[in-house]
Amino acid sequence: MNYRITTALTVMVLTTAVIAGCGNNSDDDTASQPASTSDATTQVLDPFVDDTADGHQKETATRIIDLGNQRKAPDNAIIAALVASRAEGFWRVHHSGSGGRNLFGWSQMWDNRPALDDGAVTDAIENFYAGAESPENAAKNDNPVDYAVAIQLSDHSGGRVYFEDREAYDDNMSYLSTEDKVRNEYAEALPYARAAFDQFS
């Protein structure tokens, strides 16, 4: 009788120990499991990925943003300026063909300057912002691409016409020969413009 009682007690103790041990292992396993996390990381676009060592693109983008802020231009006007100047010439002036093209792709002949110098860059930016302030163009300011295209196509400073200017001087700018092509080029520039704006604003 005592043996049976002792045996029964022993079995109960062992069973309790096993159950307790299983519970502890479960806790340990749970504790050792890392929290579920997403491995996906957001890739940040480098707007100056194709810049050269001189950092000229960053300098130009910064000037576009600073001049826009000085004029109290809305964010989308600044982004539109970044879009147009990126699409037209990668935030650079270009000395080629019959004399070069300014920051927004216009022939140098319209700048009334002997060279596309620092002053020409500032004048081009200020001229773009002046166009952005016209009621007709400002009505499109909810979309930076539409805004930028409207400003460029409506710019008749000195009598210039966008498509005639792009076709002149045999500068191989057929990729900007129609409004649809211009819009496509500007749309491709938009992510870079937004990234530059976010970086320096």
Question: Counting H and I runs of at least 4 residues, what is the number of helices?
Answer: 8
Shape: globular
Count of beta strands = 0
Biggest beta sheet summary: none
Q: Strand share of the residues? A: under 5%
Elements, N to C (H/E): HHHHHHHH
Distance between the termini: 88 Å
Mean pLDDT: 82
Specify the structural class.
Answer: mainly alpha
Show unreliable segments: 1-40
Helix content: 55-70%
Radius of gyration: 32 Å
General description of the model:
There is one protein chain. The protein has 201 residues and is mainly alpha-helical. 59% of the residues lie in helices and 0% in strands. The protein has helices at 2-32, 56-70, 75-89, 118-132, 135-138, 144-153, 162-167, 179-200.
Keywords:
201 residues; mainly alpha; 59% helix
Summarize the structure.
This protein is mostly helical. The protein has 8 helices and no strands.
Topology (SSEs and partners):
Elements: H1 2-32, H2 56-70, H3 75-89, H4 118-132, H5 135-138, H6 144-153, H7 162-167, H8 179-200
